[in-house]
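[09:14] KT: can someone run the structure on this one? pasting the chain below
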Amino acid sequence: MSDFLLKVPAGGTCFPNVKILTMQLESPDNILTEKLFCSCPSLEELSIQAYLNDEGPTTKFVISSSTLKQCTLWVETEGEMFTQAEYKVRITAPSLERLHIMSNIFGKFVVHDLNSLTDVILDIVYGEWSRVDPNRSIQLLQQLNNTTSLTVSYGALDHAYHKWFPTLSYLQHLEVAVGAIGWAVLPVILSSSVHLQSLVLRKQSRFEVTEEQFGWIEGDIVPNCLLEHVKKIEIKGVEGDEDELILVEYLLKYSSVLEVMVICFKGSVSKPERRDIGSNVRL
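[09:31] RB: done, structure tokens below
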């Protein structure tokens, strides 16, 4: 819990045999974050928890490793609501299989050679007050489009999906938290995930969202993944609102090869209400 100085050899090796590295950094210096994670030639698991303040230059994380398999980056700032903090991340890791990013602000990401990536979790907050371009989330997804499993928070999609969305040709499992923009994002994602087999939806928002805001509008074209590939659907946080019933009916109607549907209610929904909801679904 005290300050210390870690000097990374210029162009040299810092920890030649370390396979697992976990670090907690507070207002880190770029001299450290640009060199340390490139100086461990045997690294397989990396976990960084960084706390940034609103003052000083942009924090830059450079992660370059031919052996890295798992990477977790957790970035927090002092003032989440109106923070002026900024960070950039560059990842080059041809052996990386799992990538987990958590942050209360959206940094700028550039990734290279993530040919082995199969599991991605993006748990990122994006608020109306943010000065960051919301398209950063979509640009990041485009760079991660070879993953087979994706978990994404509502903050990473709410303010960018309507402009364009990348094709996720290899995606088989998708878990998405749907927030203030409602179900409108769902057809866009499904149409881009042509080989999707498993879908998990979480109705979630940091603020109160009305049924009208969520709304479900059936599109003219049914996503191909529903017609040919999706075998399991799970919906979490169900309260019994009309928009949920319409969505369930739509998914049951068009998911031609569906084998399992799981509906998880909020704790506030009583057992009689749950039975009523089930009886109200029209097939």
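[09:33] KT: thanks! Helices lie at 30-33, 135-143, 185-192, 211-214, 224-228, 242-254, 271-280.
[09:34] RB: yep, looked fine to me
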